[in-house]
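It is worth pausing here to work through a concrete case rather than discussing structure prediction in the abstract. The textbook approach is simple: state the sequence, then state the predicted structure, then interpret. We follow exactly that order.
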Amino acid sequence: MNKLENGSTYTIILVPHSGQGVKQLHIRTLWLKALGVFAAGVLLLSAVLLYQYNSTVRQSLAEKEELRYLREINGVQEGQIQQLAQTTVALQEDLQRIKKLDSEVRKMVGVDGRDTVPVSRGAVMRPVVYNPNGGQGGPGRGPDVQQLLRGVEQLKLEMNAREASLLKLRDAIAAKQAQQARTPSTWPANGEITSPYGYRTSPWGWGSDFHPGVDIADSWGTPIYATAAGTVIFSSWDGGYGQMVVIDHGNGIQTAYAHNAANLVSVGQSVTKGAHIADMGSTGASTGPHVHYEVRVDGQRVNPLEYM
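Step two, the predicted structure:
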């Protein structure tokens, strides 16, 4: 390569091995500088583009990972919300069951179920009134799913305990009511007491005797009722008692109804309190239509007035 004297052009001499003529290539210095600048520009542009491409790829991968994470979190939260919704429905059903149980218990004890009116510290009776248009305040924030779930679980435990308590109370009341139903507590018939329990002047006109029951007199055929629930253990004629019905109420208590015109129940039959068991008459040792009523406790005849 020879440089011309003016220094503005380079000459490249090509000598082929085939013996052909020598060739010369003249290149201006300005062209070489321009080519160098172009090459440097291309390299710089390539570096910038490569950097931007790598940055875009990294950002895209980060956004993709963040999107996957958010979708995963969203899926977990949706599952928790669905679980919370199902639990809420179950709690609503539990509340309805407890409400029904509460109503049953209140009916058993004779409570009407209405809420009582609270008393203020000044002892002034005033109802609770909710006014959503009044003043309100306090910090607020969105519900936390985990807190909601913990709250629901706690409420569930409290409801189960409440239900168990109400069931125990209902069973106790039912047992007490059953015992009361099997305990004599009413009059066996309409009428007037003509002969009390205890020693009396004999209705046959001589001396005195011990009367083990009370006599209640009314017209012939007046209905006679069971004074408590129980099982009929005797329904037939019994000497001076005439036609008589005896009912066993359990716990060692029995009642007897004598001098009947007709017995309407049979041995082994279960009767409820107030059941029509016989009609008033004057069979056996009797001076007129009445019912001779006895209460027997552990085989001992006691004063029926204590059970009427």
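Step three, interpretation. The helical segments are 29-109, 145-181. The CA atoms of residues 76 and 164 lie 34 Å apart.
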